[in-house]
Amino acid sequence: MIGTTLFWIGLVVAVAIGFVYFRDLGDISQMVMKVKRENTLRFIRNEYQLVAIGLAAAALMTAAHLFMDAGPGWAFWTAIILCLMFYGFTYVWVHLALRNQVNSAKYFSISEAVAYINPSSSVLVIENNGAARAHSDRDLMQPHLAGDQEGLDGENVVMTYCSMANLGVGYKPEIEGQNAKLTVMAQHGNNLILRDNSSNEPIQQIYGYREHGGERGPGMTPWPTFRMSFSGFQKAYPDGEVFLSKPSRNPLVWLFDFVTGLTLAGGIEIQHRANAPLMDNMTNEDDRLPNKTYVWGINIGADAVCYTRDFIVEHGGLINTTIGGRAIVISWDALYDSIGAYYNDTDTPITEIDFFGKTPQGVLPRVEALKSGLFWHVWVEFFPDTDVNRT
Q1: Coil/strand/helix, residue 106
Q2: pLDDT of 213 higher than 90
């Protein structure tokens, strides 16, 4: 009687926690079921504790079955298979398939990178004192995080990337003066969720701050990030560096990454092609723009505005506006094929500006809050009160 009780308790607990682990962090689960954001955040915070309880329950079930002859064989083996699927797949996917390069990214010269990146490809760029780094969407797709010990001209800056949102944001991975030990965990609202392992707190990529009970906690400092064509990057920064995620020389790792890459690429191709989100865990719907429209969004304080490329071009490639009480200049540079946003503290409208922010009134600094070329349905999910194409 005791053995039977232990068997069934262990089975139920092990399978239940395993299912929740897979549901909340397994990604592909969200292609077929709605997952509440608070559930995903809870499992991120308590992943190892919950997994430990689930595996201990599986061990209890196994001991009761093998040593106390408790429970039917079919139930035992069914539970074992389910546990291998739920725990095994989810852990491998999160911690091995999506292993980041936050401290180990390799950067190459343009002369070497041209063999891997098409000139017309869009790249995400961060720059400091003239030192620039370009990151293609393809190379960021699997690791999601790219950075190294040397930093961006000595600055500790990491590129974060979400392929579901088509969003790359540079951040200084430091919170309250301490290093944020970032790792890739999941997505919700079609946007990447990271975990700061120093605090176990989740960080939504588009926000960049820790969350405490739904409230905004301390966050990382965003670094100005902009998109441009790779050919534009070559012209603007001929001495720039390019992130390349080259295949491993280990044949087993190469095969594992090859399969992972095919899986990711197939899903992302659908995400770009179809109007509906691939993982429909969205809570805000807004038909002011088609879902997959690329927008350039800026949030300053409680104010959020986004722009489409067509609107900027139709307005002569130059828009003077105000966002969050700050005068902002939005511009499109045809030579470098890039949309930029700059703070205008000159007290006069800007009538001429180049890619580097140079104006007759002086050089304007880039807006660090610019999110370049993400999907409209993702932007409006996190900034539902956004204006569109404000002049």
Answers
A1: coil
A2: no
CB contact set of 314 (below 8 Å; sequence gap of 6+): none
Share of the chain above pLDDT 90, in %: 93
Cα(291)–Cα(297) distance, integer angstroms: 14
- Is residue 16 classed as helix, strand or coil in its secondary structure? helix
Q: In whole angstroms, what is the distance from residue 160 CA to residue 108 CA?
A: 19
Nearest to 247 by CA among 324, 335, 138: 138
Burial class (CB in 10 A: 0-12, 13-18, 19+), 297: buried
Rounded Cα–Cα distance for residues 192 and 164 (Å) = 8
- Kindly list the domain boundaries of the chain, sorted by start residue: 2-97, 107-243, 294-388
Q: With contact defined as beta carbons under 8 Å apart, do 306 and 297 qualify?
A: yes
The pLDDT score that the predictor gives to residue 280 is 87
Work out the mean pLDDT of the chain and round it to a whole number: 95
The answer to whether 298 and 206 are in contact (CB under 8 A) is no
In Å, how far from its chain's centre is CA 7? 41
Lowest mean pLDDT among 33-47, 106-120, 205-219, 259-273: 205-219
Q: Is the pLDDT of residue 215 over 70?
A: no
Distances (CA, A) of 307 to 85, 247, 295, 329, 391: 43, 36, 5, 12, 10
Supply angle C-alpha 121, 126, 128, rounded to 5: 145
Q: What pLDDT is attached to residue 32?
A: 83
State how far the Cα of 133 lies from the Cα of 139, in Å rounded to an integer. Answer: 13
Give the strand order in the sheet containing 209-212.
Answer: 182-188, 191-196, 201-204, 209-212, 215-219
Which sign does the torsion angle of CA 62, 66, 71, 74 carry?
Answer: positive
Classify residue 220 by its DSSP letter: P
φ and ψ at 192, to 5 degrees? -60, 140
Give the H or E element holding residue 143. none
pLDDT at 1: 83
79-114 tens-digit pLDDT: 999 999 999 999 999 999 999 999 999 999 999 999
Structural contact between residues 144 and 99, judged by C-beta atoms closer than 8 angstroms = no
Q: Report the alpha-carbon distance of residue 106 to residue 367 in Å, rounded.
A: 27
**Cβ pair 244, 104 in contact under 8 A:** no
Mean pLDDT of 279-299: 94
